[in-house]
Design goal:
One of its GO terms (molecular function) is metal ion binding. It is found in: Membrane. It comes from Candidatus Gottesmanbacteria bacterium RIFCSPHIGHO2_01_FULL_46_14. Belongs to the peptidase M50B family. The protein has about 350 residues and is an alpha+beta fold. Helix content is about 50%, strand content about 20%.
Amino acid sequence: MESILSTGITFFIILSILVFIHELGHFLVAKWAGILVEEFGFGLPPRLFGKKVGDTIYSINWLPIGGFVKLYGEDADEPKKTNVPLKRSFTNKSKKIRAAILVAGVCMNFVLAVGITTYLLISGVPEPSGKVHIERVQPGSPAQEVGLQEGDTITAIEGQSIIEPKDLIDATKKYVGTTVTLTIIRNSKEMEVHVLARKEPPQGQGSIGVAISDLQTRYYPVEQAPVKAVKINVWRAGEMLKGIGTLLWKIVTLQKVQEEVAGPIGIAAVTGEAVKFGFKAVLEFMSILSLNLAVINILPIPALDGGRLAFLFAEKLLGRKLRPAFEQKTHQVGMIILIFLILLISINDILRLARGS
């Protein structure tokens, strides 16, 4: 019960931060452009609490699954305010300014992802070292009997070079039931150790009885970390776009969609797993979610920022504004489809969790 509560609180905090940062982007650029921001809300209506400061109502709403910034003039059907100059209306701003407001949320989520990644790089991240070392020696194992120690670097088995853990695992399988010769380095000295590769080791121990890894913690200098963080997140964004493209292709061609596709419930479950691995794992997960939110929002899907941006491009190409009613209905239909998809994916999440997969 305590674990579920911890997961729920962590998931809610992460979601709150991501939504706040996204909407803050829209809010700040709109304010900079001189547009009247009527409301800056966390969650979706109905409203729980609201306070007006200056021209803007800052509100907390009952449904904590999103947020919004209500700009004057964004809704074409909204009655005109006689006491508000037209220059403060969203619809009367240039296409460049409207586009800047629309992409501001995406940019903020990308910046947040880069910021978190930068912090993690500075504080130390595990990276492949090209060397396999012993992380733990199991009590009572052949490894302990022959004096293998934590920190020993294994360079070869029976003369075969070891570069990554898989090399040692695969080689050991060939010599099960026999005594093998390991070449190791300890305190800068090379030595050979003869150890039995058991046929039937206790579960989770392996033939020799060691836990191995090729990872080492690398600390990036402050001046290098931001550049590296940008490169990492650009690469991740590209991979996300490839994944979305593959998913859409499978849906269109009626192929089976992999179970890795997750909705809010699945994401909450993954949050619980991240919590088990500590604060840095939660931060890494939050960074990926923030980037994912940026990538999805920039896609030309009605009701999302990318969909609204697509209408701006259409307006630019046609040389005139599209009918507001048409745009509004398109976004409404898009929102209905998105909610329907989220429900379907959530049902799949529940069924998958119930199966324990």
